[in-house]
């Protein structure tokens, strides 16, 4: 029996192991990748060959996929979004793990909707619509740039020639409309605009083009930007040529659709004649060994299809998918698909590993034929630059554009070491001339005056923008925000054995102690008649009363209040304790971690009133500001010329010929603190200023340099420079001295104490009133109307009454209630009555606290 049970358990365990590990399945012999693109198209012809070459290379490389064969399943939608969606569904039924393409933005949008539901990554090498975002389509990626990128290049070209109005001709679909919208945004940043938009139907014909272009002749601008689909027959520009619009009176710019078209054409003279003077963009792919080998291989194959740039992107995309699948198989071991009953899509299955495969794709980082392949936060590929092509009896590269370098006649690769000049759209011949003797800090006011007098064309450096200086020269946009701060020695506070009393003032401690005593008395009085825990010998009652009160601080009471009034008082008291203990803990933590100054200076105000010597940087405007604006006597101001002098003066201190603190601009202080840990900034900056470059009045360079500085700021380069050079030991903001925490006093909690005291007193008075009423009722039942009037004095009677009342309220509540429940007893029998006997016995057997 035991053996059969063990066998069953073992079988179940084995089953659970295999069921619980569905991902640890056998590595497949074949993995399928879909490819949706139009075979017979400008981009498709070259992409098809490139992807087939990639699959061949992948399957012949033993370092990838570990013996699994990659199979490409191709479908041709023939430029139809409907056919593309149908073919995508058919392809997914064949259990592809990813879809490469499509080249059309419209088809990519529809397929991405399907991919979202079935967890199939879609990677396009040609869809450039900027609205294909990662938020709406989390499974969509692209290895090419978005139209937002190349529209920024077009806008820079337009801005370089100072054209302010253009006409946009575009195909009226998502690709065209969204591309032109992106162009409008980029032009707005250059203070230019699209004056007229001329849409064309996706299936435009000659008559439509002629009609649109003829109407545009009556419009003002003569600069055209054309954003349409690749045009293998150059139908559009043939009409332009026929209408006599390829002349010096018109400017024609196109996006990269024309360069793709030119790559696919045989290069005959007639085609080039049509395009005379047209400027277009082409993705820039720097030469590298992999690219050269691929081009040689393409030529040796003697293919009918001409090589295109997008063929390289297609090749890299297939390798991207293969490398990601390889990582997936190494971690998972196999592929699984499952039916999703919620989707109700028949035999269509969800790729269980789609999310993980997507993660591997988005985290890829390798160098392919087209350069480095890496995705940003929006799952777009960064670092794609453009060549600027001018067609003049041939195609000529006239320049380059990069998102980092802007326009340039040099390639982006060669400009990597020349970036603060590349932001200005023209060459600036310059010569640096040092100012000063190199031994001490120069006078910056004198430097600015020399620029104003024409001795220098400009002055660059740490020149503060002040009111007096801005009257003489034009400053650029500030490249560094500054302000005067106070820096002084800081030391960690040493905790004494009595540091725990620092959070509260003496008044606060006394009030808190008094509150514990009051609460102890009130609770004891309210509970004494009803709660046995608060009764007993006097010594026991004293211990119970105070231990109960102080133990509420730790919520560890053995005794629990029974009376309603006692519970109400306890609720209010515990709320007060919660606030007090939380405030005490926070204040003590601050005291234990705060940094304290050896000089007692907390900021500029205490520095002014201290009368101690103050250091400043030689040549800085800080001297005049401290003397004239803050009225610090000149005898207190000590000139310092180097970081070594800063450190020496601060370490010596005011008693040994040094200074109590130094006042200087923030960047200098940050540079000083980058190598120091014993000093820190006190408080916040007490002035607001900035540094800029100085140019002569009305110099055009001031505006262009300001634009370049803004680009550096927007790209985050300035912040990187700051962190690299000024924050080696932590930025000064991280080491600012925190203000000394203040002690908590009674004024901060008077409302809580008043609330608690009010409830305690009200509860006590209610108890007292009730007890008096009970005592009067008791005495009225015991009174003998026939007894003669006593001759005892009133003072003795009063003291007896008080004594009797105290004895009465010392009785248990049960005994009093029982007495009132009995019928009234004649006065002659009152001393022998059962109730009276009960009262006397109780009074005799239990010692009274009063």
Automatic annotation (TrEMBL):
Keywords: Glycoprotein, Ion channel, Ion transport, Ligand-gated ion channel, Membrane, Receptor, Signal, Transmembrane, Transmembrane helix, Transport. The keyword Membrane applies. Residues 395-728 form the Ionotropic glutamate receptor C-terminal domain. GO terms for cellular component: membrane. It holds the Pfam family Lig_chan. It is a multi-pass membrane protein. The keyword Glycoprotein applies. Residues 1-25 form the signal peptide. It is found in: Membrane. InterPro entries: ANF_lig-bd_rcpt, GABAb_receptor_plant_PBP1, Ionotropic_Glu_rcpt, Iontro_rcpt_C, Iontropic_Glu_rcpt_pln, Peripla_BP_I. The chain crosses the membrane at residues 479-501, 508-526, 565-586, 750-772. GO terms for molecular function: ligand-gated monoatomic ion channel activity. Glutamate-gated receptor that probably acts as non-selective cation channel. Belongs to the glutamate-gated ion channel (TC 1.A.10.1) family. This is Glutamate receptor. It comes from Sesamum radiatum.
């Amino acid at each position: 029996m035991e053996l059969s049970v063990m066998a069953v358990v073992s079988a179940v365990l084995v089953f659970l192991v295999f069921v619980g590990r569905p991902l640890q399945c056998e590595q497949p012999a074949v993995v399928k990748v879909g490819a949706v693109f139009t075979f017979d198209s400008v981009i498709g012809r070259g992409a098809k060959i490139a992807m087939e070459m990639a699959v061949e290379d992948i399957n012949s490389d033993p370092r990838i996929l570990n013996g699994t064969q990659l199979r490409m399943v191709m479908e041709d939608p023939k430029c139809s979004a409907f056919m593309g969606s149908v073919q995508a569904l058919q392809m997914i039924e064949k259990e592809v793990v990813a879809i490469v393409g499509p080249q059309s933005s419209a088809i990519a949008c529809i397929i991405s909707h399907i991919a979202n539901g079935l967890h199939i990554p879609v990677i396009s090498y040609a869809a450039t619509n900027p609205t294909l975002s990662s938020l709406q389509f989390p499974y969509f990626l692209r290895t090419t740039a978005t139209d937002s990128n190349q529209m920024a290049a077009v806008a820079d070209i337009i801005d370089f020639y100072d054209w302010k109005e253009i006409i946009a001709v575009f195909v009226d679909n998502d690709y065209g409309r969204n591309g032109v919208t992106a162009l409008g945004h980029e032009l707005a940043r250059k203070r230019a605009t699209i004056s007229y938009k001329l849409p064309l139907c996706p299936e435009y014909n000659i008559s439509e083009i002629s009609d649109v272009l003829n109407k545009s002749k009556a419009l003002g601008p003569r600069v055209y930007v054309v954003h349409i689909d690749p045009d293998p027959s150059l139908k559009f520009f043939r009409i332009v040529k026929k209408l006599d619009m390829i002349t010096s009176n018109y400017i024609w710019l196109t996006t990269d659709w024309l360069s793709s078209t030119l790559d696919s054409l045989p290069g005959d003279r007639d085609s080039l004649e049509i395009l005379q003077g047209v400027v277009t963009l082409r993705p820039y792919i720097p030469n590298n060994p992999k690219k050269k080998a691929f081009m040689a291989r393409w030529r040796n194959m003697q293919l009918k299809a001409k090589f295109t740039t997008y063929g390289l992107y297609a090749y890299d995309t297939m390798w991207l998918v293969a490398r990601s699948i390889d990582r997936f198989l190494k971690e998972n071991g196999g592929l699984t698909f499952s039916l999703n009953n919620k989707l109700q899509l028949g035999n269509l299955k969800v790729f269980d590993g789609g999310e993980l495969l997507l993660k591997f794709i988005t985290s890829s980082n390798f160098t392919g034929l087209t350069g480095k392949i890496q995705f940003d936060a929006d799952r777009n590929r960064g670092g794609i630059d453009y060549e600027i092509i001018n067609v003049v009896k041939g195609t000529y590269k006239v320049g380059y554009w990069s998102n980092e370098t802007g326009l340039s006649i040099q390639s982006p690769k060669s400009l990597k070491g020349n970036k603060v000049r590349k932001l200005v759209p023209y060459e600036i011949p310059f010569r640096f001339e040092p100012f000063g003797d190199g031994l001490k800090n120069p006078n910056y006011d004198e430097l600015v005056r020399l620029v104003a007098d024409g001795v220098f064309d400009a002055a660059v450096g740490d020149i503060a923008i002040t009111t007096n200086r801005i009257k003489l020269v034009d400053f650029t946009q500030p490249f560094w925000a500054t302000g005067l701060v106070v820096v002084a020695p800081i030391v960690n506070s040493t905790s004494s054995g009595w540091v725990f009393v620092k959070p509260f003032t003496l008044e606060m401690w006394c009030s808190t102690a008094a509150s514990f005593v009051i609460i102890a008395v009130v609770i004891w009085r309210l509970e004494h008649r009803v709660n046995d825990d608060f009764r007993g010998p006097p010594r026991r009652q004293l211990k119970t009363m105070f231990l109960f009160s102080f133990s509420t601080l730790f919520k560890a009471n053995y005794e629990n209040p029974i009376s309603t009034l006692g519970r109400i008082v306890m609720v209010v008291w515990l709320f007060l304790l919660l606030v007090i203990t939380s405030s005490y803990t926070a204040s003590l933590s601050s005291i234990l971690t705060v940094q304290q100054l050896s000089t007692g200076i907390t900021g500029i105000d205490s520095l002014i009133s201290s009368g101690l010597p103050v250091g400043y940087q030689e040549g800085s405007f800080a001297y005049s500001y401290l003397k004239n604006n803050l009225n610090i006597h000149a005898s207190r101001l000590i000139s310092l010329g180097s970081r070594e002098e800063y450190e020496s003066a601060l370490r010596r201190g005011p008693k040994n010929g040094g200074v109590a603190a130094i006042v200087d601009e923030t960047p200098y202080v940050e540079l000083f603190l980058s190598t120091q840990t014993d000093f820190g900034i006190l408080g916040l900056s007490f002035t607001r200023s900035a540094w800029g470059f100085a140019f002569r009045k009305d110099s055009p360079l001031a505006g262009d340099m300001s634009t370049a500085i803004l680009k550096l700021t927007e790209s985050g380069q300035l912040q990187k420079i700051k962190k690299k050079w000024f924050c080696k030991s932590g930025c000064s903001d991280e080491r600012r001295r925190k203000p000394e925490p203040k002690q908590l006093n009674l004024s901060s909690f008077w409302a809580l104490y008043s609330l608690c005291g009010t409830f305690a007193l009200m509860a006590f008075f209610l108890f007292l009133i009730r007890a008096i009423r009970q005592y009067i009722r008791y005495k009225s039942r015991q009174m003998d109307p026939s007894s003669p009037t006593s001759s005892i004095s009133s003072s003795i009677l009063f003291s007896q009454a008080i004594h009797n009342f105290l004895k009465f309220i010392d009785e248990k509540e049960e005994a009093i209630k029982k007495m009132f429940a009995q019928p009234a007893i004649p006065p002659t029998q009152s001393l022998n009555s059962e109730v009276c006997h009960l009262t006397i016995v109780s009074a005799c057997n239990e010692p009274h606290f009063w």
